[in-house]
Amino acid sequence: MDITVVGAGYVGLVTAAGLAELGHTILCVESDLTKLAQLNEGKAPFYEPELDTLVKYHSQHGNLKFSDRITGNTIFICVGTPSKANGETDLSALWDVVYALDRPDLVVIKSTVPVGTTTKVAEFLGCQVAHNPEFLREGSALWDFLNPDRIVVGTTDKQAARTLQHIYDDLVQAMFIVTDPCSSELSKYASNAMLATRISFINEIADICDATGANIRQVAFIVGADKRIGSKFLNAGCGYGGSCFPKDLASLQNQGKEHNLQCPLIHAVQLVNKKRVSYVCDRLERLLGTLEGKRVAILGVSFKPNTNDVREAPSIRIYHALRNKGVDVAAHDPVANVLPSQRPVVYDVLRGAHAACLVTEWDDYSKLDWRYVHSIMRQPVILDCRNFLDQQYLKALGFDYLGLGVE
Ligand code: UGA
């Protein structure tokens, strides 16, 4: 099918490349001319594993084209819907696209939108409209697109549901769920809120481990072994970041507020996450005695591995909190480069440091020559904020190692 994907951000470009991979012919529309020039050279404007390869391949084979003009009859809207300062969702980019459409047959909203938005768009356009949320994790977005657990279509239009079923025909392993637009819209927020809740929950349990001597790795393993609970998203650490969880929880709380609902659980999830930064600083202080005048090497800046995205990254909050406490902070990341004191060679960051603070669990860090690192650090101290490194090996090398909840 001929499909137009509007927006070449994380969701849009992955959707465009994924739909091309499913055999469709895609026009991907991007209004930023610098990004457009990059795309026309077959390059993704951000780092996502395998995306460059797929963009280049499908561009060369003529089934993925880029433009700054919206044309076509089947339109996937994949523009950003950021949070405003008050938690409200900024839908201006979405409405700009809707106003620009010229009597399409079908409009599919992939952007995460507050409950009721799809219905308003359908009323305005008077054509087939469906909500089709994405459940793509940065860093494995293409895999997620091509191997979904479920495909959700929120629409009141039977023809729209049939067309979407045809578009995703090849993804036979996925559960295909057709529902009303409001339930589809809320299911996206609820999924992210559920995952964020698990993270804040396990982080709170990790703090209790630190206080009592239990080990969060053991506790999470035992809890996750219950099939009713499952083991995913129970990795304790310095908290969640990224463009999705913080924004979607803020939006969910705001949508509740508009209906006079307080949503205390969502509030608590956000609060626990916010407090991770001061907890990390406390743990470092415990390791180093005092923080002022010390040199700390932050390992990992992106909000998680395999992406260069630093939006709401815990590393940035930890960086500023440590600087405010008089710490000389240097940082390294294999891909992301945003902090003023970043250096490209990880050993240069660790040389002379009083402590290494691992914030993002990039594979590269487990492969460091830790024996050498021990010889170049001023103090062989590691705070592993993701419980990622080999604790026993590092202790055997003589490191003073501390994780979160694994004492
Ligand atoms: C998340 C969801 O996982 C996707 O399903 C969703 O489509 C996407 O948001 C979105 O709304 O667009 P993403 O933000 O890319 O994807 O990243 P996740 O892998 O979910 O990780 C989010 C944060 O949680 C990261 O900072 C990660 O380090 C943290 N995390 C994750 C933990 O602290 N512990 C865990 O056990 C898992």
What does this entry look like structurally?
With 407 residues, the chain is of the alpha/beta class. It is 43% helix and 14% strand. It is built from 17 helices and 13 strands. The strands form three sheets. A six-stranded parallel β-sheet has the order 3-2-1-4-5-6, with helices on both faces. The protein has a five-stranded parallel β-sheet with strand order 10-9-11-12-13. α13 (314-324) links the parallel β9 (295-299) and β10 (328-332). α8 crosses α11 (264-274). It starts with a strand and ends with a strand. The model has no long low-confidence stretch (mean pLDDT 96). The protein binds uridine-5'-diphosphate-glucuronic acid. The site of uridine-5'-diphosphate-glucuronic acid (UGA) has 19 residues, from α8. Residues 134-138, 192, 195, 199, 233-235, 237, 240-242, 244-245, 303-304 line the site of uridine-5'-diphosphate-glucuronic acid.
Counted beta strands = 13
Give the helix proportion (percent range): 40-55%
The fraction of residues in strands falls at: 5-15%
Poorly predicted runs are: none
Overall mean confidence score, pLDDT? 96
Give the end-to-end Cα distance, rounded to a whole number of Å: 56 Å
Q: What coarse outline follows from CA principal-axis ratios?
A: globular
* Alpha plus pi helix count: 17
Structural class: alpha/beta
Provide the spatial order of strands within the biggest beta sheet: 3-2-1-4-5-6
Radius of gyration: 23 Å
User: How would you characterize the largest beta sheet?
Assistant: 6 strands, parallel
Bound ligands? uridine-5'-diphosphate-glucuronic acid
Element order, helices and strands? Answer: EHEHHEEHEHEHEHEHHHHHEHEHEHHEHE
